[in-house]
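Dataset card, provenance and construction

Sequences and ligand SMILES were collected as paired inputs. For each pair, a complete structure of the chain with the small molecule in place was predicted and serialized as structure tokens. The example below shows a pair involving pyridoxal-5'-phosphate. Curators did not alter the output after generation; any descriptive sentences attached to a record were derived from the structure itself.
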Amino acid sequence: MIEDLTAFYSKAALNMKRSEIRELLKLARRPGIISFAGGLPDPQTFPVNELEDIACHLLQEKGATSLQYGPTEGETPLRAEIAKWMSREKAAIKPENILITVGSQQGLDIVSKVFLDPGDSIIVGLPTYVGGLQAFNAYRARMIGVPQDDAGMKVDLLEKALANSVSEGRKLKFIYVVPDFQNPSGVTMSLQRRKKLLELAYQYEVPVLEDSPYRDLRYAGKSVPAIYSLDNQDQVIVLGTFSKLLCPGLRIAWIMAPAEWMDRMVVAKQGMDLCSPSFTQLLVAEYLRRGLLPRQIEKIRKLYGRKLDVMLKALDRYMPKGVKWSKPKGGLFLWVELPKNMSANTLFPIAIQNKVAYVIGSAFHCNGEGQNTMRVNFSYASERQIDVGIQRLATVFKKNMQQLTETTISSP
Ligand SMILES: Cc1ncc(COP(=O)(O)O)c(C=O)c1O
């Protein structure tokens, strides 16, 4: 029997890291724990009855095609419906611009496979979506983190990072951004920064990867134009998904890209899975054709908007001085920042003992920073649980603050 499997693994496989979040989520699932850890939609929002009706119709009317292999690019009716959906913000999007993927997570993998050789540089936010970091890491990308504030990625620092890469002779393969209600921070990039980001992308000839699962989940304020809608040089690749609008279990998502960039991505997907499941694609295509999505989104907006409100009020009511948090106008997450001398990582097991869970902020930093930060989800727990859970968190923080003061006072 082979004892040392590592001698057989590829460098890429050895480089892959388990998602810290997925590991933490196992703890967060223990009974009695109020979990703000996952990015789970509230199952109340799943359109079970409509999907049941469409599924029956599909099996009766299109049993043969819906259960057969399909084209790698995706089922034509779904690509057409998504092109129509995306055309709300920019005219002339065609089905040829759409490649259906198994979740946007596969989109991240496909883009990485097509663009990245080991050691290639890319730009990511500090923080950014951990699943993006995981995908890029598997292809051994060199990630350059650019900090953000409450208007999104700091474009002056982006410009410096781009200029540095040029002076070091490194080719940058893409800039990865989650511009709307970012996972993890809830921050939305301002219009001014979106424009500047594009300007820099053109100047330095770097593609932009716009990953925007939360764009339609706005609960207050006015929408900011999508980066792709501002792009007139065909330099933006978009990742879209129905995971947070319909339900994640169908795994229907898409890459939208200029037609001439599509070919390599289709070939990359072919080698992964031949095609996405035909049945769920046709199910979603019919759901969209029936015009059910806008009402569904309205329902979600109302529910999550209320939950966000409850969480913000609870934070105001219970959190001790020194703790800060973002105030998003949409999405699923907010970002909590503890005083610099506190560690969200150290407090995590204590929070679990106190029956509340979050995700440590350092998991979202490509450079391991952000030890005093955490991501908190407000879509999954009930309004009552949100109130109780934030109270529990605040108690954990207060105790830790007290201990830290006592050790400072008692130390010589
Ligand atoms: C920014 C971002 N990109 C991609 C994904 C993956 O989504 P999907 O369920 O479509 O794979 C998520 C999921 O939470 C996300 O937050």
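Derived descriptions for this record:
The pocket of pyridoxal-5'-phosphate is lined by residues 39, 103-105, 129, 131, 178, 183, 211, 213, 241, 243, 248, 253 (CB under 6 Å).
DSSP finds 14 helices and 14 strands in the chain.
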